[in-house]
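agent: user wants the structure for RimJ/RimL family protein N-acetyltransferase from Kitasatospora atroaurantiaca. delegating to structure tool.
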Amino acid sequence: MAEWAGGPQVRIEPWADHALDLLRRLNAPEMTEHLGGPETEEQILARHQRYLAIAGSGTGRMFRVVLLPEREEVGSVGYWERVWRGETVYETGWGVLPQFQGRGIAAAAVAAAVRCAAAEGKHRYLHAFPSLDNPPSNAICRKAGFSFLSECDFEYPPGTSMRCNDWRLDLTAVI
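agent: tool returned. relaying C-alpha cells verbatim.
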C-alpha cells in the first residue's frame, strides 16, 4: 500500500482477516497500559470485525504495519471518523509490538497513514489523543508534524475518562 522513504522500511497494508493474531499480540498489558488495559477475547473479535469493515464503510481505514524486507507484521495504524468539538474529523491511533519499538517504525507508519488520509480529501483535520503519560506517542505526534492544541479529557475506553493531549494535523497541508 504505502511506504515511507525515511527511517525503517515500513509498509502499511489494509487490515486482513489473518491479522486477528496480530491484534491479539497488540492486546498485551504493556501495549494497552495507556488505553485502559487488555480487552477480552470477545472485545478483540468485535474490534477485528470493525477493522475489517471500516474501509468499506467510507469512515476510515485500518492497516497492518509490515516491516520490510522481512514482511513481518509488527503493528497497526489507522484513522476513523469522530465528531470532535462539533466538527467531523479523523482520529488516528497506532501500536507497534514492544520488541520493535524505539526504531522509528511507528513514526513511519503514522506518516504513511497521514498521506492516505490526506489523499482521500474527505476531512481537513486529523487528531491524535495520546495520554499525558505516554511520552513516546506524544513524540510521534511532534515528529509527524501534528500541532499541539491542548490537554483535554477524553473518553476511552467508553465510560472511562482519561487525560490526553489533543494533537491536530491539517491534512490539506500534507504533500
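agent: one observation worth passing along. The CA atoms of residues 75 and 104 lie 12 Å apart.
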